[in-house]
Each structure stands twice: as structure tokens, then as C-alpha cells.
């Protein structure tokens, strides 16, 4: 209430000071509706969540310096919460159930209002139960205050299953319990499990399809381009449990931002894209007519997804959804190479927070320092200090770790110092260590978790707590809240 009236007072002042259309534009409220809908995936019907503005537009756009003024309307049958991934919002607006707010009940609305300090390619998604697997996720594009418009193509990439994710999760735990029962000494790591289950698959889950902007390659989006034109690709990994190689085919691309943070440009036609990460790549369309598939290859599978850039008179090729060989698994080669365009100024590190990442295959419990959410004892940090997050992945599976409300910079991989890229999500390789640094400039209770949805459900989640910042919910309230509703309605 205090917050709202404060904003209204601010707006009022704003109108007096700048009685222009600009002030009005920055205050414009957007109603974002979360709905239930039926889509067709390769001809088969499936019920999923949809996210749209009142005008039907998918996702959100904003402008750096403007107000993010969004009312989330829950038009579904289930409680939900949306989180703005990578955004430096105040803690109250972070959208995490039983941490920053209660779930939004069916038929209810919830307002979010804060100033957009960043620009680039972001996304948002449900932070509640398994809703993200049923497509409760969408792009959030913020244009720079002085950015010139350019030709763009957005690829919002998701993994898809016809199954109820509740069943997927139960099977993961059930299978593993069965496997554990049949063997006294169960190895801890995933690759061994993969072999046991006869899947050349590094992901826990076998998906029915991979989507780009909700479409498979059997009916891909075709974006018309001009010969010689430069196109900015905004590629977002909004998947629940899949990492990808982005393949530009015949085109050479220049990667210039990761997680919306500028990097020293890197040329190439293949890039790694872990869960939660975003890549901004510029490609130049060659002279003459032509069609150029932009593909994403889920690691460890023979699948692919993507869209096609095609000049006006080019024939659009039919593309197979499968690849000839198994797509390679991500590694840390790209992270070792990438450098922030504007690295953090050097500052002494005042605190190093060690996070041991482990998995217990018998129970499918994924832990941080041996703890399972919500039974956690978070580190406390002081404001306005340089701190370090030290990830020590003791498991045989990579964990894409995401920290809310802050931008970090990667400084060390497996003991080797680097002046790496900035971002909000980083894929910590199996049996590897990684260090990132950040400045504690955004007081709150902030989530730190693995972005593999089923690992998150399995407990791989904690918070970083600013000293003296009040916690809104107790562990008991979190436990009780989690038990209230079904994991997934469909
Ligand atoms: Cu994980």
C-alpha cells in the first residue's frame, strides 16, 4: 500500500515536471493474461498455459528507463506466480511464491511496478511448481533508451512433452528408486544412469518435441528478410530441462551479448545455449535469394528445432525434425572464451559463498550444501560489497545456476582465472568449479537455484539473504504452501 501510493505520488510529480506524451507513455499499464489453451504439436492436441497481452501479443516489450507497469491476470484454474528472469527489480517484484509473494489465485490480479534499468533480451516464466514445463513462459525484450530499431528475429526455445509433468517428475523419482533397489551401490552420477536406462541422453527427460516460438520444424515460422540485410537474432532458452547448440548453418554470426550483457564480439556459426541463457547474435543475409534455417540442437538427442530466415522469392525448404547424429553435449569452451565488454571494476572480495552442488539418485534429491528447499540455511550478505559465489559441482550432471536480482561476472573456471562474461545464469559443468562475482546492491531475499525444473523441484534451490532484510515467509509457511495445490493440472 505504501509502495503504491509512493508511486502514485511520484507519477503525479512526473506529470507536473514533464507534461509530455513521454511521461504518459512510460506510465502505460499492460495487462498480462495467463490463460489455459489448447495447441497442436505435430498434429496432436495438447493443453498448455498461454501468456498474452490483452491485444493477444505474446510476451512483453519495454524500454530502458521506463516503468515496468504490468498487471498479471490469472485466468487459469490454478494459482501461479511469474518471475522476471534477469531483471534487476526490487525484491518485492521478483515473483517467487512464498519468498516475495503469495501465489496469485484464479481470477485474481497482481501488479508489478518498477523502473527498467537494463536493456536487452530477457524472459519471464512461472516460478511455481511445474507450470513452466506447460509453457508458462514468454520473452521480455527491453529496448535501449537510445537504441536504433533494427531487423530482428526472436527464437523462444522450449522443450515439450504431452505428458503431465507431474508424471514426468514421479517417473524420474520412481525409476531412480527402482534402479536403486536393483543395485546396492548406485553410482551418484547421471551419465551412468543414462547408460543404464539405455538413453544417449544427458537430460533427465525424454521430450516429445522442441519448440521455437511454439512451433516445431514440421511447420516452422518463416521470417522474410532482404538480401544483404543484417538481422539481430534474440535467442532465448526457455526450456525446462534442455541445453542446446545454436546452429546458424551457412550464415556466420557475431555474438555480441549473453544474458543481455554485452560481450567482446565472437564470430561463429555454432554457439552454446544453456537453460535460462539468452544469446544476441547478428547475422548478415548474403546477396541474392536464399533461405537460412536458424536451428537449435538439444544436447544428447537427435532432435532439432528452429525457424527459417528467407528472402521474399526464396523457396522455403522442408526440414527434418531429426539430425543424422546425436547432438554433442555442452562444455565450458564457450564460457572460457567469452569476455564482458564492460567488466566490473576491480574491488576486493569481502565474502565468498561456497555452494556444493550434489545429487542423490536414490531419492532424486538435488542439494545445495546438502540441503533441500525449503529446509535451507541461507548465507547472509552485507549491502554494497563485492562478493563471490563459488560453485563446486560434485555431481555428474551440469547445473545451470541462476541468481535473481543481480548481474554477476564469471571470474574462474576449474581454478583458472578469467575475466569472463556477465550474466544471470551459468551452466556449471559436471565435477567442475566456477566462481562468479557481484556487488550486493539490491537488498532482499534472492533465489539462487538450478534452472533444470526437475532439479529445482528436487530441492536444488536456496536464497541469499541481505542482513536485516525481513523474511516474509517461514519455512513452515513454505512447506504448507507447497502442499496446497497439485504440481500440474495438465
Ligand atoms: Cu541441476
Automatic annotation (TrEMBL):
<dbReference type="Pfam" id="PF07732">
    <property type="entry name" value="Cu-oxidase_3"/>
</dbReference>
<feature type="domain" description="Plastocyanin-like">
    <location>
        <begin position="348"/>
        <end position="467"/>
    </location>
</feature>
<feature type="domain" description="Plastocyanin-like">
    <location>
        <begin position="37"/>
        <end position="145"/>
    </location>
</feature>
<dbReference type="GO" id="GO:0005507">
    <property type="term" value="F:copper ion binding"/>
</dbReference>
<dbReference type="InterPro" id="IPR011707">
    <property type="entry name" value="Cu-oxidase-like_N"/>
</dbReference>
<keyword id="KW-0479">Metal-binding</keyword>
<dbReference type="InterPro" id="IPR001117">
    <property type="entry name" value="Cu-oxidase_2nd"/>
</dbReference>
<dbReference type="InterPro" id="IPR034279">
    <property type="entry name" value="CuRO_3_CopA"/>
</dbReference>
<keyword id="KW-0560">Oxidoreductase</keyword>
<dbReference type="Pfam" id="PF07731">
    <property type="entry name" value="Cu-oxidase_2"/>
</dbReference>
<keyword id="KW-0732">Signal</keyword>
<dbReference type="GO" id="GO:0016491">
    <property type="term" value="F:oxidoreductase activity"/>
</dbReference>
<dbReference type="Pfam" id="PF00394">
    <property type="entry name" value="Cu-oxidase"/>
</dbReference>
<feature type="domain" description="Plastocyanin-like">
    <location>
        <begin position="169"/>
        <end position="307"/>
    </location>
</feature>
<dbReference type="InterPro" id="IPR011706">
    <property type="entry name" value="Cu-oxidase_C"/>
</dbReference>
<protein>
    <submittedName>
        <fullName>FtsP/CotA-like multicopper oxidase with cupredoxin domain</fullName>
    </submittedName>
</protein>
<dbReference type="InterPro" id="IPR002355">
    <property type="entry name" value="Cu_oxidase_Cu_BS"/>
</dbReference>
<dbReference type="InterPro" id="IPR008972">
    <property type="entry name" value="Cupredoxin"/>
</dbReference>
<dbReference type="InterPro" id="IPR033138">
    <property type="entry name" value="Cu_oxidase_CS"/>
</dbReference>
<dbReference type="InterPro" id="IPR045087">
    <property type="entry name" value="Cu-oxidase_fam"/>
</dbReference>
<feature type="signal peptide">
    <location>
        <begin position="1"/>
        <end position="23"/>
    </location>
</feature>
Amino acid at each position: 500500500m505504501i509502495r503504491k501510493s509512493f508511486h502514485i505520488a511520484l507519477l503525479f510529480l512526473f506529470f507536473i515536471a514533464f507534461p509530455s506524451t513521454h511521461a504518459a507513455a512510460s506510465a502505460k499499464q499492460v495487462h498480462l493474461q495467463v490463460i489455459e489453451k489448447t495447441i497442436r504439436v505435430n498434429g496432436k492436441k495438447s493443453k498448455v498455459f498461454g501468456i498474452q497481452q490483452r491485444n493477444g501479443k505474446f510476451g512483453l516489450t519495454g524500454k530502458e528507463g521506463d516503468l515496468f507497469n504490468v498487471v498479471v491476470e490469472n485466468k487459469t484454474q490454478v494459482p501461479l506466480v511469474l518471475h522476471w528472469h534477469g531483471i534487476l527489480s526490487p525484491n518485492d517484484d521478483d515473483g517467487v511464491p512464498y519468498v516475495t509473494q503469495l501465489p496469485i489465485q484464479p481470477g485474481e490480479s497482481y501488479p508489478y511496478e518498477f523502473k527498467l534499468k537494463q536493456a536487452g533480451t530477457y524472459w519471464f516464466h512461472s516460478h511455481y511448481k511445474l507450470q513452466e514445463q506447460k509453457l508458462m513462459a514468454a520473452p521480455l525484450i527491453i529496448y535501449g533508451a537510445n537504441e536504433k530499431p533494427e531487423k530482428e528475429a526472436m527464437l523462444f526455445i522450449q522443450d515439450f512433452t504431452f505428458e503431465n509433468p507431474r508424471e514426468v517428475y514421479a517417473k524420474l523419482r520412481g525409476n531412480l528408486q527402482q534402479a536403486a533397489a536393483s543395485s546396492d551401490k548406485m553410482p551418484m552420477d547421471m551419465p551412468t544412469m543414462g547408460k543404464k536406462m539405455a538413453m544417449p541422453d544427458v537430460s533427465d527427460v525424454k521430450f516429445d518435441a522442441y519448440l521455437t516460438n511454439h512451433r516445431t520444424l514440421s511447420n516452422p515460422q518463416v521470417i522474410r528478410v532482404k538480401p544483404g540485410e543484417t538481422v539481430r537474432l534474440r535467442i532465448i532458452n526457455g526450456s525446462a530441462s534442455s541445453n542446446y547448440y545454436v546452429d546458424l548453418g551457412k550464415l556466420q554470426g557475431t555474438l555480441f551479448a549473453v544474458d543481455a550483457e554485452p560481450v567482446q564480439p565472437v564470430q561463429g556459426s555454432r554457439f552454446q545455449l544453456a537453460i535460462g541463457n539468452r544469446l544476441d547474435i547478428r547475422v548478415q543475409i548474403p546477396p541474392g535469394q536464399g533461405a537460412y534455417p536458424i536451428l537449435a540442437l538439444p544436447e544428447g538427442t537427435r532432435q532439432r528445432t528452429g525457424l527459417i530466415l528467407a528472402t521474399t522469392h526464396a523457396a522455403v525448404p522442408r526440414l527434418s525434425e531429426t539430425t543424422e547424429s546425436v547432438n554433442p553435449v555442452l562444455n565450458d569452451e564457450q564460457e572460457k572464451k567469452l569476455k564482458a565488454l564492460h567488466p566490473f571494476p576491480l574491488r576486493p572480495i569481502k565474502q565468498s559463498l561456497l555452494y556444493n552442488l550434489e545429487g542423490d539418485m536414490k531419492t532424486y534429491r538435488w542439494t545445495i550444501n546438502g540441503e533441500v528447499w525449503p529446509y535451507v540455511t541461507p548465507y547472509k550478505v552485507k549491502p554494497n560489497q563485492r562478493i563471490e559465489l563459488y560453485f563446486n559441482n560434485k555431481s555428474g550432471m551440469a547445473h545451470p545456476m541462476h541468481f535473481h536480482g543481480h548481474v554477476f561476472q564469471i571470474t574462474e573456471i576449474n581454478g583458472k582465472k578469467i575475466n569472463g562474461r556477465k550474466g544471470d545464469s551459468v551452466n556449471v559443468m559436471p565435477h567442475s568449479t566456477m566462481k562468479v562475482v557481484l556487488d550486493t546492491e539490491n537488498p532482499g531475499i534472492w533465489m539462487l537455484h538450478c534452472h533444470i525444473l526437475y532439479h529445482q523441484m528436487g530441492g536444488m534451490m536456496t536464497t541469499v539473504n541481505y542482513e536485516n532484510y525481513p523474511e516474509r515467509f517461514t519455512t513452515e509457511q513454505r512447506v504448507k504452501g507447497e502442499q496446497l495445490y497439485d504440481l500440474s493440472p495438465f
